[in-house]
Design brief:
The protein is an alpha/beta fold. The chain is built from 11 helices and 13 strands. Helix 1 packs across helix 11 and helix 5 runs parallel beside helix 6. The chain is elongated and about 70 Å long.
């Protein structure tokens, strides 16, 4: 099973819309499975009109830990309080007290405590499930609890679950990565066979594209660029194409500005269902993927 990851650096450029429609058309020729790796704001299922109750086999998992205090052992030395870089510990009545939604589970308090009054326990901070999209393939997704840490680890768990759920003859795993360049994106890109970089003709988007490309380049993964809304600023589109040429990246296809992208999201349907004329753009991507 080959892994295709769609990322953008900047959010709001149409990455999830493109991923969903690409999945639909790719599934007409190949057996695929989708993975939503934007674990902090997983919404790819909504593009297919699927809600939380439609998911199958939600399972609670733990991707982080938090400190607990044995106050009877505590000697009030304040070493845990002084060493916490996340300001997760309050000092109340000469004893430590953990703040809600603050502990990162780094373990430093446990290490510095001279009497072993602090330990770490695993917390159920997320859940993973999958749903039938209705287009002949499954979507694996997750939800990280608000304020919880461990998004990078959760992406690894979601990808592992995808491997378990996918049938033996599945040819492609299409991943929708999070925006930005943080831990979830790095965990999404790692081990990919090909990356699709989605960009729009704005200074902010090109800036973030450069940063996203650094990650892809670091892992030595072949990639291509998709320019969305290219006709909104043709001069900046030229700047993107210049960047692509300088770095030997193929601009696989360009989408013109189309209000149907927004309308499709409102109606919770893939954009290619709203405007079938977009199929030609996606066919260029599919041909590129098929060469892998």
């Amino acid at each position: 099973m080959k892994t295709i990851t769609v990322l953008s650096g900047k959010g709001g450029v149409g990455k999830s819309s493109i991923t969903a429609s690409l999945g639909i058309l790719l599934a007409q020729k190949h057996k695929i499975i989708l993975t939503d790796c934007d674990v902090d704001a997983a919404n790819l299922a909504l593009v297919f009109g699927k809600k939380e109750d439609d998911f199958i086999a939600w399972q609670d998992i733990s991707t982080s830990k938090r400190a607990i205090f044995d106050l009877e052992k505590c000697i009030s030395c304040k070493k845990c309080y002084d060493s916490c870089n996340f300001d997760a510990i309050d000092w109340v009545q000469n004893k430590p007290k953990l703040k809600k939604m603050s502990c990162e589970g780094c373990g430093i308090a446990n290490l510095v405590c001279p009497v072993g009054a602090i330990s770490l326990i695993a917390v159920n901070n997320a859940k993973i499930g999958h749903v039938d999209t209705g287009y002949g393939f499954l979507l694996v997704s997750s939800q990280l609890k608000m304020g919880a840490s461990g998004s990078g680890k959760l992406v690894a768990e979601v990808r592992s679950e995808t491997q378990k759920v996918a049938k033996e003859d599945t040819e492609f795993n299409l991943i929708d990565a999070a925006a930005g360049i943080g831990c979830p994106v790095i965990a999404s890109v790692t081990g990919s066979d090909y990356c699709i970089l989605v960009v729009e003709p704005t200074e902010a988007s090109l800036f973030d594209l450069r940063r996203a490309f650094e990650i892809v380049e670091y892992f030595e993964i072949n990639c291509g660029i998709v320019i969305n809304k290219f006709d909104l600023d043709r001069d900046y589109c030229v700047e993107i194409e210049k960047f692509a040429k300088e770095n030997d990246i193929e601009v696989v296809t360009k989408f013109s500005y189309d209000k149907c992208f927004a309308k499709a999201l409102v109606e919770m349907i893939p954009v290619v269902e709203k405007n079938p004329n977009l199929k030609n753009n996606f066919e260029a991507l599919i041909k590129k993927i098929e060469k892998i």
